[in-house]
């Protein structure tokens, strides 16, 4: 079936698991039957799933290399790091609008593209995986921007903190923990984006 039953800078652990039933009033009937829009959704569902897999692979590298594997063991350290979450509240609000959700996914992907650069220094032996992730994040962001333009959806820009250059970490350990939370939060961001795209594909 279509829907079986059963996320910048850096990210503070605000989980994005809002109730997905609120999406059911989405005013997208005029888009849901559009064949090109459906093709776009299904193509980018697969693309998002691929990126999630590559993030999970990089998470395993961080776990194996630095023995940083469980969020609950690092919560106290995280409080000192100023990690912020790329927002996606427009993708699960009661006033869901496609353009607002797409805009936040696009902007979040751009933020994570920038923050992934920290891994090039941290894990020089895994440059290819990091660069692939950056390229995929940039391409998915561009896909969404292009689809918004094709559908005539208004481009919405939400204020975000300019991450600027990568921060100077007070220690190598803080650099490693910050990187761990970048990935944990990127994975949550992608899961939320995936659920939003899947819901749109099932309207």
TrEMBL record:
PROSITE patterns: INTERLEUKIN_6 (PS00254). One of its GO terms (biological process) is positive regulation of myeloid cell differentiation. GO terms for molecular function: cytokine activity; granulocyte colony-stimulating factor receptor binding; growth factor activity. It comes from the Eukaryota. Keywords: Disulfide bond, Glycoprotein, Growth factor, Secreted, Signal. The keyword Cell membrane does not apply. InterPro entries: 4_helix_cytokine-like_core, GCSF/MGF, IL-6/GCSF/MGF, IL6/GCSF/MGF_CS. The keyword Cytoplasm does not apply. It is found in: Secreted. It holds the Pfam family GCSF. One of its GO terms (cellular component) is extracellular region. Gene3D superfamilies: 1.20.1250.10. Residues 1-25 form the signal peptide. Belongs to the IL-6 superfamily. This is MGF factor. It comes from Atlantisia rogersi. The lineage of its organism: Eukaryota, Metazoa, Chordata, Craniata, Vertebrata.
């Amino acid at each position: 079936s279509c829907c079986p039953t059963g996320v910048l800078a850096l990210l503070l652990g605000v989980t994005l698991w809002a109730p997905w039933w609120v999406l059911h009033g989405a005013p997208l009937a005029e888009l849901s039957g559009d064949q090109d829009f459906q093709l776009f959704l299904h193509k980018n569902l697969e693309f998002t799933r691929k990126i999630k897999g590559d993030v999970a692979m990089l998470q395993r590298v961080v776990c194996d290399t630095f023995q940083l594997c469980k969020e609950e063991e690092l919560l106290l350290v995280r409080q000192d790091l100023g990690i912020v979450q790329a927002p996606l509240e427009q993708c699960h609000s009661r006033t869901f609008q496609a353009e607002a959700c797409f805009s936040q996914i696009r902007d979040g992907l751009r933020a994570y593209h920038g923050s992934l650069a920290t891994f090039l220094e941290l894990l020089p032996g895994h440059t290819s995986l990091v660069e692939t992730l950056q390229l995929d994040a940039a391409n998915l962001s561009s896909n969404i921007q292009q689809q918004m333009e094709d559908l005539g959806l208004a481009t919405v820009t939400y204020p975000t903190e300019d991450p600027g250059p990568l921060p100077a970490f007070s220690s190598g350990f803080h650099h490693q923990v910050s990187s761990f939370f970048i990935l944990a939060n990127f994975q949550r961001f992608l899961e939320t984006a995936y659920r939003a795209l899947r819901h749109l594909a099932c309207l």
